[in-house]
Amino acid sequence: MKIGNKTTSDIILGTFAMGGGTSWQDTTALDDELIQLMRDAYDLGITGYDTAPVYGTGRSERLLGAAIKDHREDVYISTKVCLNWRNTEGSFEYARDGYQVYRNFNRKSLIQDTYDSLKRLDTDYIDLMIVHRCPPIDCIKEVAETMNELKEKGLIKAVGLSNVGNVSDPIKVLDTYLQYGSLDLIQEKANILDRKNLDLLPYCEKHGIVFQNYGGLVSGALSGNINKEMASWKGDNRSGNRWFKGDNYLIVKDVIDQLTPIANHYDCSVPVLALSWLKAQSPCLSLLVGARRLSSIKDTLKVLDIHLSAEDIEALNEISRDANKRIKED
Fold first, then answer.
1. Beta strand pairing status for 99-103 and 83-84?
2. pTM, two decimal places
3. CB within 8 A of 165, min separation 6: which ones?
4. Region 267-281: what's the mean pLDDT?
5. CB 78 within 8 A of CB 126
6. Residue 188 forms beta bridges with which residues?
7. Quick count: other Cβ atoms within 10 Å of Cβ 245?
8. Exposure pattern of 15-53 as b/e (b: 16+ CB <10 Å)?
9. Contact 61, 20 (CB under 8 A)
10. Residue 236, Cβ neighbours under 10 Å: how many?
11. Dihedral angle, C-alpha 19, 23, 25, 30, nearest 10 °
12. Could you say which of 81, 158, 209, 267 has the lowest number of CB atoms within 10 Å?
């Protein structure tokens, strides 16, 4: 898929979980293992990697920089700005692992975020810079102009926004941003259990914006290895996930049961089927999938060989619509 002016693999490897810490408490503490995993992914044909400064408070970026240093020109790196732990300027976001993270959209902070990431990644440029939190309307002009400035300097090549679907009027945010700068991608959470952000696909298709989907496997819930105990892990990214607790836990199990015979028909796993359904939603959709095991990456790549029939896509749409009606909000 082409993002900006550069083509990358249709599957993008997300490195959030590789940051570890209390965010992902079952991630290995051995850096060499994760570096090798990223290199193995490259050998399998994955050339796109997504990271962020706050993934492991710098760890994910440093590991990625070490993993791709021998073939930098052949890979596509996206990272993010607006969340940092340098100082207490901006709005408090969260405290974790001894750090306090703040959200800051001003020009000076965004530029410093970029230079900090360049250093950790050990690279001269970033292929795609994503604004990690959707900026409020009154900040968009400054954010867009700062991204334009970074592009003019050659420090970044393309621009994205993340979590636009979380605001009350995402279309207004996108329209406003396009008044001041070009936008290559939005990065949004969507899956068969929570599909509302897919409503942004028509806008992306109209304006030539890539819709990069994350959270397609619901933090691993659709793997079938969902564990109620994860809901009680203090600070873990899955502890606040509504699908790991209460009645929603039963909805997940029910959806997996409904997906299983269709997955068997295509001789694939339930996670591969769920991702294939997402891929079928639009030609502008890019799949961002996290992994910490080589077996998971190999399984995910089977998505590229799955072509769902129109009948099965509609059957999966119906399963998705029904699950969304049954959601119990936090």
1. antiparallel
2. 0.93
3. 188, 189, 190, 196, 197, 199, 200
4. 96
5. yes
6. 213
7. 17
8. bbbbbbbebbeebeeeeeebbebbeebbeeebbbbbbbb
9. no
10. 19
11. 10
12. 267
CA distance 66 to 137: 37
Structure tokens at 7: 């083509």
Tokens of 156: 């970044």
- Kindly state the tokens that stand for 195: 């599909």
Q: Are 266 and 192 in contact (CB under 8 A)?
A: no
Active site residues: 55
* pLDDT at residue 226 in the model: 59
Structural domains present in the chain: 2-325 (3.20.20.100)
Strands 48-50 and 83-84: unpaired
Phi-psi domain of 90 (left: phi exceeds 0; alpha: psi -120 through 50; beta: other): left
Rg of the chain taking only CA atoms, in angstroms = 19
> What is the band of 281 on the pLDDT scale with cuts at 50, 70, 90?
very high
